[in-house]
Amino acid sequence: MTQLTAPPASTAAVGAHDALGSPWPASARPGPGGDLLVGGVGLAESAERFGTPLYVLDEAEVRARARAYRRALPHADVLYAAKAFLCSAMADWVAEEGLGLDVCSSGELWLAVSAGFPAQRILLHGNAKSPAELRLARRLRVGRIVIDGPAEIARLAALVAADTPQKVLVRVVPGIAAGHHAAVRTGVGGQKFGFPIDGGDAAHAIARVLDQPGLELVGLHCHLGSQITEVGPYLEAVDALVRLMVEVRDRHGVELPELDLGGGHGIRYLPGDEELGLAEFAVRVTDRLAVRCAESDLEVPRLLVEPGRAVAGPAGVAVYRVLSVKHGSDGRCFAAVDGGMSDNPRPALYGSPYSVRLVGRRSEAGAARVDVVGRHCEAGDVLVRDAVLPADLRPGDLLAVPAAGAYQLSMASGYNLVGRPAVAAVRDGRARLLIRRETVEDFRLREVGR
Ligand SMILES: Cc1ncc(COP(=O)(O)O)c(C=O)c1O
Ligand SMILES: N[C@@H](CCCC[NH3+])C(=O)O
């Protein structure tokens, strides 16, 4: 194992009070016996109680983040992007904190409405909404649908009677590159989402939507990409969308009342990472919108934002058990854990960095560089490359990964029939199971023939 002299940086920063900027929930505190308390409950204690891999969600962190959005943007509609992570409890928390919900499938829509989320506060996205999905959305009376492709205009219009119009937005592509990886940059041409503004596709789609008596065009939408840490791209998006709104007014005599800037707000994965500053975002975007509208004598539209990662991500911690520690021929040390790319595909998909720390025991050993790898049948199944961990790391140890609340479980797969982890919520010193672990029996239960 490569010994390091510096203290293990990834184990140093814990609470949000940390000067470096911490990826851990604000409630994170050192606990007894080397445990780490989140929401007042030890991670090791929860791992013993619920098993591993375990995803722990800090309810207060989700609620505080949702509330911070409402406070920073009191005149905007804030819709939590369910794709980051959704379960009934999550739907309750964001509903109670006054957020709406952005869903992008009948699965997300059905789960939210079954959990009691008010359908009028739901907005449906999707670049390939099926006729059945659109019918479900209409039947459940979702508040808004974002039109993302030409076929959807007639498909949706056919489902809607003129006397019960459907509020819709048109998703446009402003030609702005932002986001942590090419796979998530959706504000530019050459990708599958939306109608490009350049070349006139967006203007054409808007004209077609305005021609449909059952469709009430309430605004324009764009989503630039994900894990964006600067406000600049959003200001450019405001410019581009307001320009298009002015064109719509001048050409059709219609002032659109809503402008949806999508999500994409970046969070910290490593200590010291930049995150998107919510206060700065709120002030600069709101000001820019007011200025651009005033320049063209346009009524200021209501702002919509759809943060997913920034609400759920920092509230989640993944806890794994080390099953094996081994040294490669080049001296590299591998600590293999009981989860991996099936519960967190992000490192394999995007090369996403994470930090990790030992929990549940104190170590006096020095620091070592370790690759924390998963249990799947791929050499690329590496969860944290070059992690700094105690040199005496051994099988049975527990490792905790912060910033695990978004795009991990929601992108989890059934690879190797390992089964998806359990999810527990913590709050005020108590833990409760939200989602049970997927068992081997669950796989067989879906089979209906042989
Ligand atoms: C249309 C739309 N809105 C909102 C989001 C949420 O993004 P994030 O979780 O990065 O805030 C996404 C995903 O990137 C999206 O595609
Ligand atoms: N899955 C991506 C984000 C996709 C956002 C959906 N539009 C990530 O983890 O970064």
UniProtKB/TrEMBL annotation:
GO biological process per UniProt: lysine biosynthetic process via diaminopimelate
Keywords: Amino-acid biosynthesis, Decarboxylase, Lyase, Lysine biosynthesis, Pyridoxal phosphate
A single GO molecular function term of this UniProt record: diaminopimelate decarboxylase activity
Modification N6-(pyridoxal phosphate)lysine occurs at: 83
Active site: 377
Start and end residues of each Orn/DAP/Arg decarboxylase 2 N-terminal domain: 60-312
Keyword check for Repressor: no
UniProt binding sites for pyridoxal 5'-phosphate: 264, 306-309, 407
Catalyses which reaction(s): meso-2,6-diaminopimelate + H(+) = L-lysine + CO2
Matches recorded under InterPro entries: Ala_racemase/Decarboxylase_C (IPR009006), DAP_deCOOHase_LysA (IPR002986), De-COase2_N (IPR022644), De-COase2_pyr-phos_BS (IPR022653), Orn/DAP/Arg_de-COase (IPR000183), PLP-binding_barrel (IPR029066)
Cofactor(s) this protein cannot do without: pyridoxal 5'-phosphate
Residues the record lists as binding substrate: 309, 346, 350, 378, 407
E.C. number(s) listed in UniProt: 4.1.1.20
Pathway terms, separated by semicolons: Amino-acid biosynthesis; L-lysine biosynthesis via DAP pathway; L-lysine from DL-2,6-diaminopimelate: step 1/1
Record family assignment: Belongs to the Orn/Lys/Arg decarboxylase class-II family. LysA subfamily.
Role according to the record: Specifically catalyzes the decarboxylation of meso-diaminopimelate (meso-DAP) to L-lysine.
Subunit structure: Homodimer.
Name under which the protein is recorded: Diaminopimelate decarboxylase
Species for this entry: Streptomyces kaniharaensis
